[in-house]
Design a protein that fits this description.
The complex is a heterodimer. By secondary structure, chain A is α+β, with helices and mostly antiparallel strands. Chain A is built from 2 helices and 8 strands. Chain B has 3 helices and 9 strands. The chains are: A alpha+beta, B alpha/beta.
Chain lengths: 90, 140
């Protein structure tokens, strides 16, 4: 089972420049753990002690996982995940 | 250096004035690898705030999908400051996540919603370091 993950420019140094990578897992958290096993360090850029980092958006297909079940959102084969940093400032 | 058309500069300034006193924000997309801003995409400031801006999360996904489909990148990411100078705030620097984009700031602090002088400056923000760059405006 393989999930397609779209990686933003800022995280591509972890994936040797790859824009789309594959990962496995049955929840968003498990997919992130699997990504980190393949691309060490990427997890810390996405998750901190309190969960998903404030300035990182993770989408399951077309939906922000914050509107679903957050990191515990179930992921099925053929789903795709998109990671996008928030565009924000003061 | 940012090379940009007068029309696109006018569009950013008009957007900043229209949303004053809240911050306005948006993107100017261009062909990947070209460094040429071409397609003006004003965004809604989901924060609707005079001191903060944030693209709506759903709009953000749509924007990036759309740019991907067109083989574009966000050449310019712009926003306004409505009470301070056109220089990146500490928050701007901490959120900046497009190392290849030109971060353009427009300040409307002098004239608000009215016509008149404005400040527009461009910066690179890479790993927490701000570097101002020259802006060359081309008249079509």
């Amino acid at each position: 089972m393989s999930i397609e993950v779209r990686v933003p420019t800022i995280l591509r140094p972890y994936t040797s420049g790859e824009k789309v990578v594959s990962a496995r897992g049955t929840t968003v958290a498990a997919v992130v753990d699997d990504l980190d096993a393949r691309y060490p360090g990427i997890r810390e850029r996405l998750i901190d002690d309190s969960g998903l980092r404030r300035f990182v958006n993770v989408y399951l297909n077309d939906e922000d996982v914050r509107f679903l079940g957050g990191l515990t959102t179930p992921v099925a084969d053929s789903d795709s995940i998109t990671i996008l940093p928030a565009v924000a400032g003061g | 250096m940012l090379v940009i058309s007068q029309d696109l500069v006018d569009a950013m300034v008009a957007h900043a004035r229209a949303d004053h006193p809240d911050e306005a924000c948006g993107v100017i997309a261009g062909p990947a690898g070209s460094d040429r801003p071409e397609r003006f995409i004003p965004m809604v400031n989901a924060a609707r705030s005079p001191t903060f801006y944030e693209f709506d999360t759903t709009d953000l996904l749509r924007l990036y999908r759309d740019m991907d489909d067109r083989d574009e990148v966000p050449v310019v990411i712009y926003h306004s400051h409505t009470a301070t100078e056109a220089f990146p705030s500490r928050t701007d620097v901490s959120y900046a996540s497009e190392p290849e984009a030109h971060y353009v700031l427009v300040s409307t602090r002098e004239t608000g919603r009215e016509e008149g002088p404005f400040e527009l400056r461009s910066f690179r923000i890479v790993e927490g370091t701000v570097t101002e760059e020259e802006v060359r405006i081309e008249v079509a």
